[in-house]
Specification:
single chain, about 400 residues, mainly alpha, 2 strands, membrane, transmembrane, Glucan_succinyl_AcylTrfase, Acyl_transf_3_dom
Length: about 400
């Protein structure tokens, strides 16, 4: 497989949107670890990416996993390589990076009386409840844990399913996923998950009881894995990207209109059902449109791509802790929403770059922040994605 630069750019953009989304979480009424005075309307632009950002990341991760699997060839070797690459930064993140988030939440919302160091040394590693929280926690790093689990399941499937059956499944995927089915089948599955299999279910990000998330994201991961060896399907996305983007925009307009009319999940029947279906349509149509556009217009290299590709994982590890800590400090300023937002975005970007550049330069820290131990001789950065 040749490297797909378009999906690299898509992955970079998706994580950039994720950082902005988590900044927005500070201001909307939705639950988050740190809150500042905001406005309900902030949720409206956030819904432009809410239905598809994670599904897209799992599709891209599945696609890249196919390339990594072909490079490693043997399932156990693939699983070992991915385990080392994902579990080391996950453990480091849970132990060192994430703890500031529950400390801020407990201090600002539940009256926790102690400072951070007391919390980290005496309360964080209790493996039980402290107030409403179960500690330790992985918070935003749930994505890394889920990706590791999906990778192990994939490796096990490849190991136990005969080669002929896998080849038949790949051919079946290529035959089915063409034409209107590229949109209709995934949207139908998302509607089935939300209205038939798990009606009213919510994602928990707790792994063992998160069936709504698994039913949504594991198929997306497998879809990306199969897409990597289905050029006709990828070409179908390219041909239909305008159509897909148009459908996604129309669905988002409907979602936004309902949210504006009934903010805060207060819409009456049948508007609640229409809202959920529109979100499902927006979610997959946006993924399809973005993949098609990326393959048709972004599949080319640039001198910045290797560094940005490598920086994505460290940015992801650190960004939410920076957001939560800066938001905690901003509580006492009384600044207007727009100024808080500017400071949060600027501080988060600066903190992410500092974390990446410092960690990149110190050899023993590289594996802890998701980088390979040694940089590429050609670029001095790792051109292959870690969280892929």
């Amino acid at each position: 497989m040749q490297r797909h630069y378009g999906l690299d750019w898509l992955r970079i953009g998706a994580f950039a949107i994720l950082i902005l989304y988590h900044v927005g979480m500070v201001f909307v009424p939705w639950d988050f670890h740190a809150k500042l005075p905001g406005a309900w309307w902030v949720a409206v632009p956030m819904m432009a990416s809410n239905p598809w950002r994670l599904a897209l990341l799992f599709v891209v991760s599945g696609y890249a996993s196919r390339a990594l699997f072909l490079r490693n060839k043997v399932p156990w070797r693939f699983a070992r390589q991915r385990s080392l690459r994902l579990l080391v930064p996950l453990a480091f993140g849970v132990a060192v990076i994430v703890p500031v988030q529950p400390w801020v939440e407990l201090t600002s919302r539940y009256g926790y009386p102690h400072g951070f160091w007391h919390f980290w040394l005496h309360d964080y590693f209790r493996f039980g409840r402290l107030g409403p929280l179960v500690l330790p926690t992985w918070n935003h790093l749930w994505f890394v844990g889920y990706l590791w689990v999906y990778t192990l399941v994939l490796a096990a499937l490849v190991a136990i399913v005969p080669a002929r059956a896998r080849q038949a499944a790949q051919r079946g995927f290529a035959w089915i996923m063409r034409g209107p089915a590229l949109l209709l089948l995934p949207v139908g599955w998302m509607v089935l998950v939300n209205f038939v299999l798990f009606p009213g279910g919510r994602e928990t990000h707790a792994l063992v009881d998160d069936w709504v998330a698994h039913a949504s994201y594991f198929p997306a991961f497998l879809f990306g894995f199969a897409l990597a060896c289905a050029p006709a399907t990828l070409a179908g996305f390219v041909r239909r990207w305008r159509e897909s983007a148009g459908i996604a925009i129309l669905a988002y307009i409907l979602v936004a209109a309902i949210e504006i009319r009934w903010p805060g999940n207060t819409m009456p029947a049948p508007w609640g059902t229409i809202f959920s279906v529109a979100r499902a349509v927006e979610g997959w149509a946006a993924v399809a449109g973005l993949i098609g556009y990326a393959d048709g217009h972004w599949n080319r290299d640039h001198r910045w791509r290797p560094m940005l590709t490598e920086a994505v994982f460290p940015f992801y590890i650190i960004h939410q802790s920076v957001i939560v800590l800066v938001a905690y400090w901003l509580r006492a300023t009384g600044w207007p929403v727009w100024l808080d937002a500017i400071v949060l975005v600027a501080a988060t970007v600066a903190g992410c770059w500092a974390f990446y550049l410092i960690g990149r330069a110190i050899g023993p820290l590289r594996p802890l922040i998701g980088l390979r131990r040694h940089a590429s001789r050609r670029t001095r950065v790792d051109p292959r994605p870690a969280i892929a």
